[in-house]
Amino acid sequence: MDGLTTMSIRNIHPDQAEFRSLLGKFYHRPPGRESWCDVILRLRSVMDMISLHHAGRRVMIFTHQVVVLCLRYIIEGMTEAKILATRPNTPAPPRASLTGRFARSEQSRPVEQLVPEAPN
User: Fold this and answer.
1) Which residues of 25-55 are buried (b: 16+ CB within 10 A; e: fewer)?
2) E strand or H helix that includes residue 75
3) For residue 109, what are the contacts with CB-CB under 8 A and spacing of at least 6?
């Protein structure tokens, strides 16, 4: 239901809109889909696998906005409130973005976020 406005969700899926309002966007699992918590759980496993099998190597991940936000949640140690507040302030670029991260010691630091400008 990501990508739909709150009003669209109410109009198209009124029962899910009620569940979502009770549980919150972070915990709500639409039928046949994943909650943000489900995504974060899978990403923790992926990150463990990458650390185990690709330690010391560069890894590139191609994904969509929610997964990028969930990765940031893990890497930056965000709270639920912070990840939910981050989304409206960082709209998805029209084509793509490149978000860089690198680890040094026990800390991860942002490199840069490169977002191409939308053609007029």
Assistant:
1) beebeeeeeebbeebbeebeeeeeeeeeeee
2) helix 65-75
3) 101, 102
Indicate yes or no: pTM above 0.85: no
pLDDT tens profile 8-54: 777 877 887 887 888 888 888 887 888 899 999 999 999 999 888 98
Query: b/e for 71-82, b at 16 or more Cβ within 10 A?
Result: bbbebeebeeee
Question: Are the C-beta atoms of 13 and 24 separated by less than 8 Å?
Answer: no
> Phi and psi for 9 in degrees, rounded to 5?
-60, -45
Backbone angles phi, psi at 59, to 5 degrees: -130, 135
Residue identified by tokens 């909650």 is 35
- The residue assigned the tokens 């943000």 is 36
Q: pLDDT by residue (tens digit) across 53-80?
A: 988 888 888 888 888 889 889 988 889 8
> In sequence order, what are the beta bridge partners of 33?
none
